[in-house]
């Protein structure tokens, strides 16, 4: 199996970084293949701008987008690793999705039909949150409510199914031992 890891966290000392390292170890130990993009390290431009639309109109794709699209196309399984900020993904990841999952690549749409193009792929979304799960539940902010944009509205819409979400709650508030146990629980 070939995995693609899409990593979106700016801090190399973060728990997200540790998740990424654990996942790579798991993939290598299984003998699977993977490709990897660190959106912050690559300084991926998240702004969907006029040059993107002009290129698409000409039937072309800008080089940074083409690189990511080739990785997505080759992958059987996408692995997203990112923190939840304001109940969504970091802007750099949202911009990556906006630019990479374009009409003609991730789907086809005209005035009559919408056809997903990324069928046959699955995904796992590893997210970190600063809040405890029970606090979210008490405030009617269950995981399914705010992850629906990613699981259904993005990945599901373009045909990526099934999608599994793996949350890690209250990361800044738990002990190093608890974080270590969470890392050891990761299985690919």
Automatic annotation (TrEMBL):
<feature type="domain" description="Flavodoxin-like fold">
    <location>
        <begin position="1"/>
        <end position="181"/>
    </location>
</feature>
<keyword id="KW-0560">Oxidoreductase</keyword>
<protein>
    <submittedName>
        <fullName>NAD(P)H-dependent oxidoreductase</fullName>
    </submittedName>
</protein>
<dbReference type="Pfam" id="PF02525">
    <property type="entry name" value="Flavodoxin_2"/>
</dbReference>
<comment type="similarity">
    <text>Belongs to the NAD(P)H dehydrogenase (quinone) family.</text>
</comment>
<dbReference type="InterPro" id="IPR051545">
    <property type="entry name" value="NAD(P)H_dehydrogenase_qn"/>
</dbReference>
<dbReference type="InterPro" id="IPR003680">
    <property type="entry name" value="Flavodoxin_fold"/>
</dbReference>
<dbReference type="InterPro" id="IPR029039">
    <property type="entry name" value="Flavoprotein-like_sf"/>
</dbReference>
